[in-house]
Amino acid sequence: MLRTIIIASATLMTTTEIMAQAQSTPKVLVYTATAGYRHDSIPTAIQVLGDNAQQYGVEFTFSEDKSLFTNESLSTFDGVMFVSNSDEVLDESGQAALQTFFQSGGVYTGVHSASACLFNDENYQQAVGALFDYHPPIQDATFTRINNTHPATANVPDRWSFQEEVYYFRSNPRDNGAVVLLSVDETSYVNNGTSSGNYPSMGDPHPIAWYIDSPLSSQPLSQGISKPGRSFYTSLGHLNSTWQDETFINHVMSGLKWALDGASTKAYGIGLVGNGNNNETSSSNQTSASASTSGSGSNTSGASATVSASASTSSGTGTGGTSGAQTNTHLPGNAAFIGAGILGLVGVSLLI
């Protein structure tokens, strides 16, 4: 007898595949506060990150306001990105809130001198992997790719030469669980810098960029959290020209996306922190945030702006600080990324 039987065939993504797609746009707080030396590439970094937000499916909030570091405020973000910071940019209450954020599944990304701040905060050191010690004068150097499969380095050449500060660190990031992605050809530059102390070895090969899948900063995990937020750090990014380089932009943004796609936050349907709004509606807002500084190396406070597609920044420049910096951002409708299993009904003829 020939019968036609309808068989329900489920073409389902694996749990990992589902979780690696955001259910709502991940929100990231980009923190550029400084309490010491201030990079004049910070306005360029803000503009470049804003310009690339939509392409990489993230929403950025740019700020130098340490009052945002509370449990309530940080709980609305999936990740924090520290960019070119210096010295003690958070008070004790802010550091405690950041620790709670990490223990709640929050993601960390650090760029350039993000490793040169919060020297007295052990939890932050565990998140970034290792803290800055010194660098020789900026010069041409050749960075070498160790890992060619990780998203942050998949598009980086095996030998990548440009003008940069070659960072030395106060410890070995591998001791905090880091896997090194980039190193440097030690014959390609002159190391005539001086260490600030008698620190342990940073390990071999020389770490330049790395990731941490399960940072010690997340321990102990908060109740109800099944997995920690990931961490990614790169020491590159001193010059404006570096931030304008497409290879570098992809390096930073792909590292951030890898960290977010660990799927430990509300944007991915789990966790205690993040953007849990999966019914986002289109909106268009114009936000203006201004930041004023005084003197070389001064800190900027109270500046914040949200952007998910583009940002334009104008600022006076100088190696010690910015003057009258203003960031104008445009916030278009947010893109939603839905990860779900696909159920298909397939008609199959069987001879019984």
TrEMBL record:
TM region(s), chain numbering: none
Compositional bias of kind Low complexity: 277-316
Keywords: Signal
Stretches assigned to the ThuA-like domain: 27-259
Signal peptide stretch: 1-20
InterPro entries tied to this protein: Class_I_gatase-like, ThuA-like
UniProt protein name: Glycosyl-hydrolase
Organism of provenance: Kwoniella pini CBS 10737
